């Protein structure tokens, strides 16, 4: 036995997937009728499939959120092909003047009217030079309103993946309903207070299997 958890609430649901490969406990407050029990059973399957880190964004500490933002910003700067055009053009002009080889300059001169495919032809060294310049000018780029909007959108996307209530409910008929909206449709007073997810071999090196797809398929069967 590597780990155990005690879970209490007005209603508690459990779910075991794949003959014991994944186990989930979900606790809720505010309702305990059959509808609430069914809802938490569905949420337990959601947790098994999507493996959220938090229940809600408010569960993240300020330091955790700041770290997520920093990682997202650095990731964006190291992927220059996805940067807003005005910023990318400035980086290209500087790389062209200071860092690129004659071959990469020639490629740019040929492809600059069709920037969509430019990075398919530039060398890895040319792309790395752009990323290096972006990181060196990080403070200025981060203060750019266009980039700030891009980064905020990417952070929001990350939060939707790691926060249970922000995730798209796996059984949503429209493919868009969030877990929060699903719970609200069942009972406005029903709140998730704790989620626990166990997986065989946690902390051990193991073969990576697509449990999410397997559970999602079972839920929609």
CATH superfamily of the largest domain: Elongation factor Ts, dimerisation domain
Strand content: 5-15%
Averaged pLDDT: 91
As a whole number of angstroms, the C-alpha radius of gyration is 23 Å
Which key terms come to mind for this protein?
single chain, 221 residues, mainly alpha, Tetrahydropterin Synthase, Chain A, 3-stranded antiparallel β-sheet, 10 helices, 52% helix, elongated
Summarize it.
The chain has 221 residues and is mainly alpha-helical. The protein has helices at residues 34-50, 62-77, 85-98, 102-111, 118-121, 124-136, 138-142, 145-162, 179-186, 211-219, and strands spanning 11-17, 22-29, 191-199.
How would you describe this protein?
There is one protein chain. Helices cover 52% and strands 11% of the residues. The chain has 221 residues and is mainly α. The protein has 2 domains: 11-59 and 167-219, 2-Layer Sandwich (Tetrahydropterin Synthase, Chain A), CATH 3.30.479; 62-158, no CATH class. The protein has a 3-stranded antiparallel beta sheet, covered by helices on one side. α1 (34-50) runs antiparallel to α10 and α2 crosses α8 (145-162). It is elongated, with a radius of gyration of 23 Å. It starts with 10 loop residues before the first strand and ends with a helix.
């Amino acid at each position: 036995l590597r780990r155990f958890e005690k879970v209490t609430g007005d209603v508690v649901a459990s779910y075991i997937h794949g003959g014991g490969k994944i186990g989930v406990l979900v606790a809720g407050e505010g309702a305990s009728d059959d509808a609430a029990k069914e809802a938490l059973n569905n949420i337990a399957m959601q947790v098994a499939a999507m493996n959220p880190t938090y229940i809600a964004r408010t569960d993240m500490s300020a330091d955790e959120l700041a770290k997520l933002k920093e990682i997202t910003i650095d990731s964006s700067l190291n992927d220059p092909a996805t940067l807003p055009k005005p910023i990318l053009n400035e980086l290209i002009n500087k790389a062209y003047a200071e860092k690129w080889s004659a071959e990469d300059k020639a490629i740019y001169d040929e492809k600059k009217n069709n920037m969509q495919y430019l990075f398919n032809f530039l060398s890895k060294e040319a792309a790395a030079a752009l990323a290096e310049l972006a990181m060196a000018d990080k403070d200025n780029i981060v203060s750019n309103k266009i980039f700030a909007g891009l980064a905020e959108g990417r952070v929001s996307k990350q939060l939707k993946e790691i926060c249970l209530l922000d995730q798209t409910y796996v059984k949503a008929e429209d493919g868009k309903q969030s877990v929060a909206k699903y719970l609200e449709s069942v009972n406005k007073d029903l709140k998730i207070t704790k989620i626990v997810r166990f997986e065989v071999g946690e902390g051990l090196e193991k073969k990576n299997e697509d449990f999410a797809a397997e559970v999602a398929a079972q839920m929609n069967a």
